[in-house]
């Protein structure tokens, strides 16, 4: 592996993506909307009439997990809702890289620029690593940046228990550990799907299936059926790592010079 | 420089290249001709170590393909059929990437050298998406030359270019040739091949013929001179046909087309006899068959053999 060559390709990919208005808009929109949604919802909920235990019926009380039982019910409900939103934050590293990955491969198919690239003394593994990094790094950085913005906003407007719940280890570990793994899953899937499709939007839609398990888990949490713990995040990270390895195996199998030249173009 | 022995490439049931055996010498311009789907691009991809042969062996610049692919790719430059540039990036960004991937020592220096050489320096900061086809092709040629490879593969370098751009590109190929680089040129433009190539190879899955354009003309059509006269009289016809070295003579209006095996020595005798027989000679020139005639003759012969 030659770091200089990988760096040159990453640099080119990022320069190219920065000049693609579609990618810039797509990548900026999702994190901005999500941060605005979390902070906006919190602001609105804190400014409506306060909820106490007496105003909640039995079903609503049963939604509050035992871990939050000592808290003001308004705060407990807000924590549950924010937990739901935090799951959406984990979708950011899954949704963003596929915009770059799909365009970086399908775009090269369209402009027929893959062949000159493959004719250089760069190995296919260097090329795959560079393409993956070029898609993963901006997505993870944007996820982390938007999380930092959320923390700053939350510090300013959230009551202390709600703010502390948002920066509890579960979410810090999720952001640090799980989000890069999910980003890689999205990128490797993007490579596989891009090899079979000629439309970046179609590739993005198909990659969307990976969002389903995370949405499902978020609904279970919202229903108060489980309260996330750090070991659950580690378990999820282990599963994500295993799935990453399987998907990477197929991506490497497909990402061969001859296959790319004779079947992709 | 290039040595191929029985190089074969099969894609599933499709035989793309069949037992290609070929030698291309250092400093030579070798034109590779053939119809669409004849295996020209596949051959270039094989020789540039982009795809693996199904059978056979080949060495490029001393490196065996399949064994030392990275060095093969280090030692060749390739101009693909489509320029394949990054259209949102500018000319400098496009070339810089490739200079780095090809391990060029002085990246900025080489990029500037080739942008200036090809007249693109003033437009270096513009996105190449706004370039004309000719400018894109020149940039793609610059990209292939950045690492100063001794061997250059050019796949249809003037296809889809207007005559002016095609001429600029052709002139530049001529300059590369003068600089002593080996060029492997795939083209449909037979006139271009005739002007640039030292030798020509005609392929249709398998290599049909390899030789210099002049030798191909001689082997297929022999050598013929055309003598234009004020009028062709019987004494002139008799004087010509009685010469022992005249293999064949045809009359076309006031011209005689005569087959000779050594026109350089036989023409003076021929002219002397015609004048002595009262013929008034206006012009003498050699009948030169176009490369197109040669190409079609070879392809048709191959088709007949395949059908037989």
What does the secondary structure layout of this molecule look like, with pairings?
The complex is a heterodimer of chains A (about 260) and B (about 300).
Chain A: H1 3-18, H2 21-47, H3 58-63, H4 73-111, H5 114-118, H6 124-157, H7 160-166, H8 169-196, H9 200-207, H10 211-222, H11 230-254, H12 257-264
Helix pairs in contact in A: 1-6, 2-4, 2-6, 4-6, 4-7, 4-8, 4-9, 4-10, 6-8, 8-9, 8-11
Chain B: E1 2-11, E2 14-24, E3 29-33, H1 40-47, E4 55-60, E5 63-64, H2 69-74, E6 76-79, H3 91-101, H4 107-117, H5 133-145, E7 151-155, H6 163-178, E8 182-186, H7 190-196, E9 199-204, E10 206-211, H8 213-221, E11 223-229, H9 234-241, E12 248-252, E13 255-260, H10 263-276, E14 281-287, H11 291-307
Parallel strand pairs in B: 3-8, 3-9, 6-7, 7-8
Antiparallel strand pairs in B: 1-2, 1-4, 4-5, 9-10, 11-13, 11-14, 12-13
Helix pairs in contact in B: 3-4, 5-6, 9-10
What would you note in describing this structure?
The complex is a heterodimer of chains A (265) and B (308). By secondary structure, chain A is mainly alpha-helical. Chain A has one domain (3-264). Chain A has helices spanning 3-18, 21-47, 58-63, 73-111, 114-118, 124-157, 160-166, 169-196, 200-207, 211-222, 230-254, 257-264. The mean pLDDT of chain A is 81. Chain B has 308 residues and is α/β, with parallel strands linked by helices. Chain B has 2 domains: 2-216, Rossmann fold (3-Layer(aba) Sandwich), CATH 3.40.50; 223-287, Alpha-Beta Plaits (2-Layer Sandwich), CATH 3.30.70. Helix content of chain B is 39%, strand content 28%. In chain B, strands 6-7-8-3-9-10 form a 6-stranded mixed β-sheet, sandwiched between helices. Chain B has a 4-stranded antiparallel β-sheet with strand order 2-1-4-5. In chain B, strands 12-13-11-14 form a 4-stranded antiparallel β-sheet. In chain B, helix 3 (91-101) crosses helix 4 (107-117) and helix 9 (234-241) runs antiparallel to helix 10 (263-276). The longest helix of chain B is centred in the last third of the chain and has 17 residues, at 291-307. The two termini of chain B are 36 Å apart. The model of chain B has no long low-confidence stretch (mean pLDDT 88). At the A-B interface, helix 1, helix 5 and helix 12 of A face helix 2, helix 3 and helix 5 of B.
């Amino acid at each position: 592996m030659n770091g200089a060559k990988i760096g040159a390709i990453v640099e080119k990919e990022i320069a190219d993506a920065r000049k693609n208005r579609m990618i810039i808009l797509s990548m900026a929109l999702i994190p901005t909307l999500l941060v605005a949604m979390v902070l906006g919802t919190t602001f609105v909920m804190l400014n409506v009439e306060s909820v106490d235990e007496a105003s909640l019926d039995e079903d609503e009380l049963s939604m509050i997990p035992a871990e939050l039982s000592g808290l003001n019910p308004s705060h407990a409900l807000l924590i549950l809702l924010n937990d739901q939103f935090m799951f959406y934050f984990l979708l950011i590293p899954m949704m963003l890289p596929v915009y770059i990955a799909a365009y970086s491969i399908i775009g090269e198919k369209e402009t027929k620029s893959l062949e000159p690239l493959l004719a250089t003394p760069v190995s296919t593994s260097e090329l795959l690593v560079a393409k993956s990094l070029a898609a993963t790094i901006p997505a993870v950085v944007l996820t982390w940046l938007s999380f930092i913005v959320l923390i700053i906003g939350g510090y300013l407007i959230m009551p202390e228990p709600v703010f502390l719940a948002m920066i509890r280890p579960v979410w810090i570990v999720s952001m640090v550990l799980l989000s890069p793994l999910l980003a890689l899953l999205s990128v490797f899937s993007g490579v596989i799907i891009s090899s079979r499709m000629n439309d970046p939007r179609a590739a993005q839609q198909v990659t969307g299936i990976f969002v389903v398990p995370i949405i499902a888990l978020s609904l279970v949490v919202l229903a108060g059926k489980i309260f996330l713990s750090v070991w659950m995040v580690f378990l999820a990270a282990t599963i994500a790592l295993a799935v990453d390895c399987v998907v990477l195996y197929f991506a490497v199998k497909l990402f061969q010079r001859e296959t790319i030249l004779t079947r992709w173009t | 420089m290039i040595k191929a022995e029985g190089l074969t490439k099969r894609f599933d049931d499709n035989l793309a290249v069949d037992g290609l055996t070929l030698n291309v010498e250092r400093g030579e311009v070798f034109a590779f001709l053939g119809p669409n789907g004849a295996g020209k691009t596949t051959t270039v991809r094989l020789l540039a170590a982009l795809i693996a042969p199904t059978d056979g062996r080949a060495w490029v610049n001393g490196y065996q393909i399949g064994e030392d692919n990275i060095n093969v790719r280090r030692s060749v430059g390739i101009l693909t059929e489509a320029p394949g540039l990054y259209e949102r990036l500018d000319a400098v960004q496009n070339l810089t990437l490739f200079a780095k991937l090809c391990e060029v020592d002085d990246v900025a220096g080489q990029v500037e050298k080739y942008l200036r050489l090809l007249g693109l320096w003033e437009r270096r900061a513009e996105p190449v998406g706004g370039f004309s086809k000719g400018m894109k092709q020149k940039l793609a040629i610059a990209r292939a030359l950045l690492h100063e490879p001794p061997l250059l593969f050019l796949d249809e370098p003037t296809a889809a270019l207007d005559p002016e751009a095609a001429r600029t590109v052709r002139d530049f190929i001529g300059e590369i040739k003068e600089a002593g680089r080996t060029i492997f040129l795939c083209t449909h433009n037979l006139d271009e091949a005739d002007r640039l190539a030292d030798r020509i190879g005609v392929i249709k899955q398998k290599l049909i013929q390899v030789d210099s354009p002049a030798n191909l003309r001689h082997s297929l059509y022999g050598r013929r001179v055309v003598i234009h006269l004020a009028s062709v009289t019987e004494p002139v016809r008799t004087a010509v046909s009685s010469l022992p070295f005249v293999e064949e003579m045809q009359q076309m209006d006031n011209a005689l087309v005569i087959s000779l095996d050594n026109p350089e020595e036989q023409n003076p005798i021929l002219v002397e006899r015609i004048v002595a027989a009262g013929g008034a000679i206006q012009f003498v020139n050699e009948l030169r068959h176009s490369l197109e005639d040669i190409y079609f003759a070879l392809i048709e012969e191959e088709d007949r053999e395949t059908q037989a």
